[in-house]
C-alpha cells in the first residue's frame, strides 16, 4: 500500500526555467522526484509536528517548444500518493517566446464560520481553475494574499481565548506561555494542512506553478494596523513569529527561495522574471504598523531592484491591499474622534488611502512611474499592472500621468473562496465612502480612477479569480471568472 503525503505536492516557480516541488511526509526517508526521465533528490528542510518538509529543485533548459513535465515522488518503499490517491502529476512549461497565460487569485478562505455555512460549494472556483487549466494551461498561478484565514485562532487556541478576555492593560503585560506557543504552532500547521487539502485546490497547487505573498488573514485580521501597545505585546509578537514560520515554509517554500530580494528575510518581497514579465511582490505585512506599510530597508531593496531590472518586460506588481480603491478618509477622520476608534481602527487604517499611509502610497505610485519612464527611454512598449485583492469585490482601476502619457492599471480579484459583501453591507460601504476621481498633485496631471469592466458593473460583488494573457492583438486581456453568469473582461493596451 502506497504511503500518503500529509500535504502536497506544492509546485512553485522561481524563474524562467526553475521549478520547485515541496511536500510534507510523515516519514523521514530518502525521497526523490522523477521529472519525466530526470531524478532529483529532495532535501529534508525541517521537522514539523505532523511530519517532515521536503523541497526539490528542477532546472530545465530553455526550449522554443512548449513541454509538459510529468512527475512523481518516490522513496525506497515505492511511489507516494497524495491524500486523494493521486500518485503522479504534470505541469506545463511554455515555449521560450510563447505568450504566457497567468491566473491570479486572493482571499482563499472565510473570515467567520457563519460565511462558510452559507455557501453551498465553497471551493467551486478552484474547480473552475482546474477546468480552464486542463483546456488551456496556465503558466503561473499568482496568489496575492490570505491564502489561509487564521482568524479562528482566537477560539481554537484556549490560552488565546482566555487572554482575549483580559483588560487591555493586562493583555499588554501578559507573556506568551509555553503552552500557548505550542498550541499556536499546532494551529497554524493544521490550518494549512486542512485548508489546502480540498480535492480541486490540491490538484491546482500540484499542477500549476504558484507564487504567493501573504496578507493580514495569513496572520490574523488586520495585522499591522493595531495600536502600537498591543501590536508590540509579547503575545502578538509570538503569534506573528509563528504565523511567519509557516508562511515561510508553505507559501515561500523555505529560505532557499532564490526570488527573495532581501536574503536576510527582514521582509519577504520577491521578484522573478518569467518570459516577458517581471512579477514584483511587495511584502506589506512583515514590517507594517499604523504609521508605515514598508520600512526604509524594504523601500531601499525595492528601489535598488527597480533601478537595475525590468527594462524589457511587463511588470506585475503584487500589492495585497488595493492602491486604487474607494476613499475611506472621511470615515476615518470621524472614527478618530469617537468611541468607535479602538473597535474599527484596524479596518480603516489597513487601506492605502488611510491618512497615515497616503504619503507612502504616493511614493509607490511615483516610483512605478519612474520605472515606466526608464523603460520608455529604452524604447520598450511595456505595461505596469498592480494586482490586488483583500476587499472581497473585483474591480479595475487606473492611475494616469497625463503629462507624460503614462498609466498604471490595477486589477482587483477577490475572493476565490471568500464571499462578497451582502447587498446591505455594500450599501453601507458605499454610503460612507466615495470613488470619485482623485488628483495626486497640484497641477492635476496625475489622476486615479475606477473603471468599469466590459460586461459588468463597476464593482464585481461576486466571488472571482482573474486570467491574464496577451492576445494576438498585442493587448493584455484581463478576464474575471466569476461565481455567476457574468463574464467581465478588459483589454489593456
Any key phrases for this structure?
Purple Acid Phosphatase, chain A, domain 2; 23 strands; single chain; eight-stranded mixed beta sheet; Immunoglobulin-like; 2 domains; alpha+beta; six-stranded mixed beta sheet; 493 residues; globular
**CATH fold-level name of the largest domain:** Purple Acid Phosphatase, chain A, domain 2
**What's the name of the CATH homologous superfamily of the largest domain?**
Metallo-dependent phosphatases
Radius of gyration of CA atoms, rounded to a whole number: 22 Å
In what order do the strands lie side by side in the largest sheet? 13-14-15-16-18-17-20-19
**How many structurally independent domains?**
2
CATH class of the largest domain: Alpha Beta
Domain PhoD-like phosphatase: 89-336, 343-422
Organism: Poseidonibacter ostreae
InterPro entries: Metallo-depent_PP-like, PhoD-like_MPP, PhoD-like_sf, PhoD_2-like
Protein name: Alkaline phosphatase family protein
Description:
The structure is a single chain. This protein is an alpha+beta fold. The protein has two domains: about 1-95, Immunoglobulin-like; about 100-490, Purple Acid Phosphatase, chain A, domain 2 (4-Layer Sandwich). It is about 30% helix and about 25% strand. It has helices at about 115, 125-135, 155, 160-165, 170-175, 180-195, 200-205, 230, 235-250, 295-310, 330-335, 340-350, 360-375, 425-430, and strands at about 5-15, 20-25, 30-35, 40, 45-50, 50-60, 65-75, 80, 90-95, 100-105, 140-145, 210, 270-275, 275-280, 315-320, 385-390, 395-400, 405-410, 440, 445-450, 465-470, 475-480, 490. The chain has an eight-stranded mixed β-sheet with strand order 13-14-15-16-18-17-20-19. Helix 2 runs parallel beside helix 7 (about 200-205), helix 6 runs parallel beside helix 9 and helix 11 packs antiparallel against helix 12 (about 340-350). The protein is globular, with a radius of gyration of 22 Å. The N and C termini lie far apart (about 55 Å).
Amino acid at each position: 500500500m502506497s504511503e500518503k503525503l500529509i500535504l502536497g505536492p506544492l509546485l512553485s516557480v522561481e524563474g524562467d526555467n526553475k521549478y520547485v516541488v515541496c511536500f510534507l511526509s510523515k516519514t523521514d526517508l530518502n525521497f526523490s522526484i522523477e521529472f519525466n526521465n530526470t531524478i532529483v533528490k529532495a532535501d529534508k528542510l525541517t521537522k514539523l509536528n505532523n511530519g517532515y518538509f521536503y523541497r526539490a529543485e528542477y532546472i530545465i533548459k530553455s526550449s522554443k517548444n512548449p513541454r509538459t513535465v510529468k512527475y512523481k515522488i518516490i522513496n525506497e518503499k515505492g511511489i507516494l500518493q497524495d491524500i486523494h490517491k493521486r500518485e503522479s502529476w504534470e505541469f506545463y512549461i511554455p515555449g521560450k517566446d510563447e505568450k504566457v497565460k497567468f491566473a491570479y487569485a486572493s482571499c482563499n478562505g472565510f473570515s467567520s464560520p457563519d460565511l462558510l455555512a452559507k455557501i453551498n460549494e465553497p471551493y467551486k472556483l478552484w474547480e473552475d481553475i482546474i477546468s480552464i487549466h486542463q483546456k488551456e494551461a496556465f503558466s503561473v498561478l499568482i496568489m496575492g494574499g490570505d491564502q489561509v484565514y487564521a482568524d479562528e485562532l482566537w477560539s481554537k487556541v484556549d490560552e488565546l481565548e482566555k487572554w482575549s478576555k483580559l483588560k487591555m492593560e493586562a493583555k499588554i503585560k501578559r507573556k506568551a506561555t509555553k503552552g500557548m506557543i505550542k498550541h499556536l504552532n499546532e494551529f497554524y500547521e493544521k490550518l494549512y494542512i486542512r485548508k489546502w487539502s480540498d480535492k480541486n485546490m490540491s490538484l491546482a497547487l500540484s499542477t500549476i506553478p504558484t507564487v504567493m505573498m501573504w496578507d493580514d488573514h495569513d496572520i490574523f485580521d488586520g495585522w499591522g494596523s493595531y495600536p502600537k501597545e498591543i501590536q508590540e505585546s509579547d503575545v502578538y509578537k509570538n503569534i506573528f513569529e509563528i504565523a511567519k514560520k509557516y508562511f515561510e515554509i508553505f507559501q515561500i517554500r523555505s529560505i532557499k527561495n532564490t526570488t527573495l530580494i532581501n536574503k536576510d528575510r527582514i521582509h519577504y518581497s520577491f521578484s522573478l522574471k518569467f518570459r516577458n514579465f517581471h512579477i514584483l511582490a511587495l511584502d506589506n505585512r512583515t514590517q507594517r504598523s499604523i504609521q508605515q506599510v514598508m520600512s526604509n530597508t524594504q523601500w531601499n531593496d525595492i528601489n535598488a531592484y527597480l533601478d537595475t531590472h525590468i527594462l524589457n518586460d511587463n511588470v506585475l506588481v503584487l500589492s495585497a491591499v488595493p492602491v486604487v480603491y474607494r476613499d475611506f478618509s472621511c470615515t476615518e477622520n470621524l472614527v478618530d474622534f469617537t468611541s468607535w476608534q479602538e473597535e474599527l481602527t484596524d479596518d480603516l487604517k489597513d487601506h492605502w488611502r488611510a491618512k497615515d499611509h497616503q504619503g507612502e502610497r504616493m511614493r509607490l505610485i511615483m516610483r512605478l512611474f519612474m520605472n515606466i519612464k526608464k523603460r520608455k527611454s529604452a524604447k520598450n512598449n511595456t505595461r505596469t499592472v498592480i494586482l490586488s485583492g483583500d476587499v472581497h469585490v473585483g474591480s479595475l482601476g487606473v492611475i494616469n500621468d497625463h503629462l507624460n502619457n503614462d498609466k498604471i492599471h490595477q486589477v482587483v480579484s477577490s475572493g476565490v473562496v471568500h464571499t462578497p459583501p451582502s447587498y446591505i453591507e455594500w450599501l453601507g460601504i458605499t454610503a460612507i465612502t466615495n470613488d470619485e476621481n482623485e488628483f495626486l498633485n497640484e497641477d492635476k496631471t496625475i489622476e486615479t480612477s475606477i473603471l468599469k469592466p466590459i460586461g459588468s458593473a463597476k464593482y464585481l460583488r461576486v466571488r472571482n479569480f482573474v486570467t491574464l494573457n496577451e492576445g494576438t492583438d498585442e493587448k493584455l486581456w484581463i478576464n474575471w471568472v466569476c461565481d455567476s453568469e457574468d463574464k467581465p473582461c478588459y483589454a489593456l493596451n
